[in-house]
Amino acid sequence: MSADKHLQSWQERFELAEAMQPLLGKLYRNQGVEVVVYGRPLLSASTIEIIKAHRLVRRHVGDKLRLRESFPFLEALSKLDVKHCKVDIGKLAVKYWRNHQDIDEIEAYMAHELKEVIHHTGDTAPRDVVLYGFGRIGRLLARLLIERSGKSNRLRLRAIVLRGGRKGDLEKRASLLRRDSVHGPFNGSVEVDTDNNALIANGTYIQVIYADGPSEVDYTKYGIERALVVDNTGIWKDEAGLGQHLACPGVEKALLTAPAKGDIKNIVFGVNEDDILPNDLIVSAASCTTNAITPVLKAIHDEFGIENGHVETIHSYTNDQNLIDNYHSADRRGRSAPLNMVITETGAAKAVAKALPALKGRLTGNAIRVPTPNVSLAILSLNLNREVSKDSVNDYIRHVSLHSGLQNQIDYTESTEIVSSDLVGSRYAGVFDSQATIAEDKRVTLYVWYDNEFGYSCQVVGVMQKMLGLQYPSLPLGDD
Question: Most CB within 10 Å of its CB: which of 83, 122, 185, 449?
Answer without folding.
Answer: 449
